[in-house]
Amino acid sequence: MPLIEITLVEGRDPERLRDLIHEVHAAARRALDVPDANIRVVIREIPATHWAAGDVTIAERTAR
């Protein structure tokens, strides 16, 4: 049973996330040839203030 975890910075609308789930699910089904009911997709949304690269958060980078 594949479990696919995706981590994103929060802020995308629910329809966009639903599209992502659909596309990732379809790719897993094609690549692994497993039943739909066995595929799990989890999206974790992280606040922009909690995600940093190079000691700069995404919120700080966006504010510049």
From TrEMBL:
<feature type="domain" description="4-oxalocrotonate tautomerase-like">
    <location>
        <begin position="2"/>
        <end position="60"/>
    </location>
</feature>
<dbReference type="Pfam" id="PF01361">
    <property type="entry name" value="Tautomerase"/>
</dbReference>
<keyword id="KW-0413">Isomerase</keyword>
<comment type="similarity">
    <text>Belongs to the 4-oxalocrotonate tautomerase family.</text>
</comment>
<dbReference type="InterPro" id="IPR014347">
    <property type="entry name" value="Tautomerase/MIF_sf"/>
</dbReference>
<protein>
    <submittedName>
        <fullName>4-oxalocrotonate tautomerase</fullName>
    </submittedName>
</protein>
<dbReference type="GO" id="GO:0016853">
    <property type="term" value="F:isomerase activity"/>
</dbReference>
<dbReference type="InterPro" id="IPR004370">
    <property type="entry name" value="4-OT-like_dom"/>
</dbReference>
